[in-house]
Amino acid sequence: MAAVSNKVRRAKPLLGTFVEIEAAGPSQAELGRAIDAAFEQVAMVHRLMSFHDPDSDVGRLNRDAADRPVRVHAWTFQVLKTSIELHRRSGGIFNVAVAPALQAMGLLPQHDADAIAQTPPPPVHEAIELVDGQMVRFRDRQARIDLGGIAKGFAVDRALDSLRQAGSLAWGLVNAGGDLAACGAELQSAYIRHPRDPGRVVCRVDFADEALASTARRFDLFRSSETAVSAIIDPHGQTPANSIDGVTVRASSCMIADALTKIVMISGPAAGALLEQCNASALLVTADGELQISPDWQNAVHLAA
Known about the structure:
This protein is of the alpha+beta class. The protein contains 8 helices and 16 strands. About 3% of the residues have low confidence.
């Protein structure tokens, strides 16, 4: 391979955040083409899985799938299939049918009044039926889905796969607002903020050729230095998760890491068995400030002084 002499980094607003893609390789022109192609993958996921767009796959499902089966893109079908499997494996904790609770909190738009329900969300495996031919049907008329807890990680995976297909790249990195993944042998570093004090770094995490995803209490540094309650909804009580303040998960897939952060935010250390099943590791900060790290990950986590 030719010597690496170029590095390109670009950012675009997508998925409700800023997506940054960086790559290194011998050719500046090839890097630009590879990054453009990777952004196209992210933009496709954005178009397919946006809750805000009534014409996206998610919008069409929420509007029509209780009345008739709806055909969706293969990517949407894949994300739904993974969501149903994680719902089953997590004992119902991971639930993409919590959209009405997020609407009631003002975190999602209210496309129609019927979407706001005060009853617990239906079990995903009972409410959503996947039919051959990429068809989806809702068995429960109250069902409304939001793929925001998994689609961003899926988009990162698709972008990274696109970078991998540009064979002469030395390494690549995709960062979508804290969901990030890298390819290549280059060691990357991510700095984890304290969930109650976003201006303070808890630790540095080193990683290569794998994915990280983080979830924490909400904050907007442009409005206030104070953090708000989590946007992660415990489907059993339809209330924000409150025992864990912040989570970072490491996995081979960013889609899986993204989804697992929601499960750990709700279940805390009890999610350890599922993390092990998924060959994943977690770093979490409890509501009382305790830092807990999976034993197999401690060597890659460097605590801040």
